[in-house]
Amino acid sequence: MKNILELIEPYNSISIIGMAKNTGKTTTLNYILDEARGKYSLGLTSIGRDGEELDRVTATGKPKIFVENNTIVATAKNALLNSDFTKEILYVTDYTTPMGRVVIANAISAGYVDLAGPSIGTYVGDIVNQLFDLKCDKVIVDGALGRKSFASPSITEGTILATGAALHSDMDKVVDETVFTAEILSIDKLDDCIALREVEKYPENRVVIIDKNYGALPLEVSTSMIAGKEISENIDEETRYVFIKGVLTDKVMDQIMKSCRKMSNITFVVEDGTKIFATQKTLSKFKRLGGVIKALNKINIAAITINPTSPYGYEFSEEQFLRELRERTDIPVFNVLRG
């Protein structure tokens, strides 16, 4: 099996997102930073805040983020002041956080960094591009609690999913939820070029229905979250695709399924897997009725990392946890504490 550094080699930018707090996201980040030492010129930023010494949720100690010299870091002003590496300020961005404006600095010496970045995806994407402009070979984005939306390919090219015992005390539930999340995030890309060209003609519409002859029907809805009724009223046996810009929720899917009991000829297309906000139960029912979901952009999950220990006082068998996840997914699974 390839190691994590080999798995992320194809991607210039990579995000690390956690299934929950304390699932090993920071440990995964430190592992990558250590393995990449001397191999890449690295850029590092964050969604929200990470790197503080004490976890504010569990009041337990957590690993610090350690950077080598010549790592370029984008973090909020006050977080940068909390960091203990010697800094060369390169650029002060226009993006603000509760800890001040995001500052881009070069680490002249090795040390610990306190990361704090914006919580808006487009801002993070812009910062990633600025780090590339500063000649970084790879940029790593440290995710935030429950913010799986930052796995979006509009922000980074690849993603690592961190899971662990902190998610739930029942290991079977953790495995189920992790596998389900990985499957949803990495749904396949639609490869019908004609349909894709047709829907591009309606950039302002949240929902566009395409029939089998590639005729388009743009719907006048303000948000995809309330579009279930309108979609139901406008799909029939001629419908081939329903393009949805925004989130696809349980409520929308339930409304569609109540009105259309057979959807074997219809493919629902979302922007990417982060836009699916539906439960496993709803999606299973949707698939039984013949429903298919594709994405405009596929999320590349390079690896899943595990933390078998919970700060709440219990732990899983590492061997069993690894084995069950590896049996349920084709995505490589690692315990980075053991390499």
Features of the shown structure:
alpha/beta, Cytidine Deaminase, domain 2, Rossmann fold, 28% helix, globular, 2 domains, five-stranded mixed β-sheet, 339 residues, nine-stranded mixed β-sheet
Counting structural domains, the number is: 2
CATH topology of the largest domain: Rossmann fold
Q: Give the strand content.
A: 25-35%
| Main sheet: strand order | 6-7-5-2-10-1-11-19-20
| Rounded mean pLDDT score | 90
Task: Give the CA-CA distance, first to last residue.
Answer: 12 Å
Largest sheet: 9 strands, mixed
Question: What is the CATH-assigned architecture of the largest domain?
Answer: 3-Layer(aba) Sandwich
Q: How many individual β-strands?
A: 20
Low-confidence stretches: none
CATH class of the largest domain: Alpha Beta
Rg, Cα atoms, Å = 21 Å
Write the element-wise H/E pattern from the N-terminal end onward: HEHEEEEHEEEEHEEHHEEHEEHEEHEEHE
Supply the number of helical segments. 10
How would you characterize the overall build of this protein?
Strand 12 and strand 13 form a beta hairpin. This protein has 2 domains: 218 residues, Rossmann fold; 103 residues, Cytidine Deaminase, domain 2 (3-Layer(aba) Sandwich). The longest helix has 15 residues. With 339 residues, the chain is of the alpha/beta class. The radius of gyration is 21 Å and the shape is globular. Helices cover 28% and strands 28% of the residues.
